[in-house]
Write a structure and sequence with these properties.
It is built from eight helices and 18 strands. Strands 1, 2, 3, 4, 5, 6, 7, 8 and 18 form a nine-stranded antiparallel sheet that branches. It has two domains: 154 residues, Aminotransferase class 4, branched-chain amino acid transferase, N-terminal domain (D-amino Acid Aminotransferase, Chain A, domain 1, 2-Layer Sandwich); 167 residues, D-amino Acid Aminotransferase, subunit A, domain 2 (D-amino Acid Aminotransferase, Chain A, domain 2). Belongs to the class-IV pyridoxal-phosphate-dependent aminotransferase family. Acts on leucine, isoleucine and valine. Its EC number is 2.6.1.42. It catalyses: L-isoleucine + 2-oxoglutarate = (S)-3-methyl-2-oxopentanoate + L-glutamate; L-leucine + 2-oxoglutarate = 4-methyl-2-oxopentanoate + L-glutamate; L-valine + 2-oxoglutarate = 3-methyl-2-oxobutanoate + L-glutamate.
């Protein structure tokens, strides 16, 4: 079967007025300012992927028996389009998001969206909504591809029908004035994912499972939560939505190894490559909470940071836990995390050479 990959544009009859759009993009924050259009495609076993379009963004009408509402067959991605230094526009590593989306679909027993269809849906939406990329500090167009099970059926089985969509949202810098060091709550009661589960898939259920621990973190005066492994309750895995790195006094970096309980972050992978480009030794190894505390106390650990698409790099200044609190280095952003963040942002915006071919220029 030949798969169509063209997304015809069906423009909205009520576009946002130019002055209103400009006002919204002055300080868009994150995830609250949406563009006028979205990409959409449908799937069923008989027709495969069909009815591709760039269509007006509007509410969905679904049956109360829609499978996603009952059995949570849902996956999503997150990536950004940037204005580049040469005046153009580029996506950052969309093919990597496409491959992860396919892996998530396999784990959730959903149809795999072909890589070329995923990438073209993002390209077509960015071309349609290019005027929504803000010029503010850290401005970008955040894309949210997602797929839901849409069959109206209450039996427990994979759905026969699916809807794929991509939303676009104007965003600014996640942290005004630059990244600030956060305080992390190390959850010793809740776990995010168990071996054999869906921890390596980017599905909504994993994030729902993190919310109680995140709420607990807030009550403890912390900004984010970091999870331990579900088997021994000893080893650091990841934050609710970010991977984590550790920087040592010999200049080396470590990060937990990927497994079926840790999401393979694209920012994580990019930072590993950029660090190695700079001659920094990077290890992927297990690291316990007790060792983290001891290394922070001895000075062997000089920095820690989390990373993800939204905030890029987030320095970790302190950790709180039932078993004891500790401060990392000076408690503020460190030199290594600051340098790696600057290098990644420069590459994403076309201000630095792109030796890995990560920019997908439109």
């Amino acid at each position: 079967m030949t798969i169509a990959t063209t997304f015809p544009r069906n423009p909205t009859a009520s576009p946002t007025p130019v002055d209103v759009r400009a006002e919204r993009m002055v300080d868009p924050g994150f995830g609250r300012v949406f563009t006028d259009h979205m990409a959409i495609a449908h799937y069923n076993a008989a027709d495969g992927w069909h009815d591709l379009a760039i269509a007006p963004r509007q509410p969905l009408t679904v049956d109360p028996a829609c499978a996603v509402l009952h059995y949570a067959q849902e996956i999503f991605e997150g990536l950004k389009a940037y204005r580049t230094a040469d005046g153009g526009t580029a996506l950052f590593r969309p093919e990597a998001n496409a491959r992860r989306f396919m892996a998530s679909a396999r784990r959730l027993a959903m149809p795999e969206l072909p890589e070329e269809l995923f990438v073209e849906s993002c390209r077509a939406l960015v071309r349609s909504e290019i005027d929504w990329i803000p010029d503010c500090d850290g401005g970008a167009l955040y894309l949210r591809p997602f797929m839901i099970a849409s069959e109206a059926f209450l039996g427990v089985k994979p759905s026969s029908d699916y809807i794929y969509m991509v939303l676009a949202s104007s965003v600014g810098a996640y942290f005004k004035g630059g990244p600030k060091a956060v305080t992390i709550w190390a959850s010793e009661n809740y776990t995010r994912a168990a071996p054999g589960g869906t921890g390596a898939a980017k599905c909504g259920g994993n994030y729902a499972a993190s919310l109680a621990a995140q709420a607990e973190a807030i009550t403890k005066g912390c900004d984010q939560v970091v999870f331990l492994d579900a088997v021994e309750r000893r080893y650091i895995e990841e934050l609710g939505g970010m991977n984590v790195f550790f920087v040592f006094d010999d200049g080396s970096i470590a990060t937990p190894p990927l497994s079926d309980t840790i999401l393979a972050g694209i920012t994580r992978d990019s930072l590993i490559a950029l660090a190695r480009d700079r001659g920094i030794a990077v290890r992927e190894e297990r690291y316990s909470l007790d060792q983290w505390r001891a290394d922070a106390a001895s000075g062997r650990l000089t920095e820690a940071f989390a990373c993800g698409t939204a905030a890029v790099v987030t320095p970790i200044g302190a950790v709180k836990a039932t078993s004891g609190d500790f401060t990392i280095g000076s408690g503020g952003p460190g030199q290594t995390s600051t340098a790696l963040r600057a290098a990644l942002v420069a590459l994403q915006t076309g201000s630095a050479p792109d030796p890995h071919g990560w920019l997908d220029k439109l």
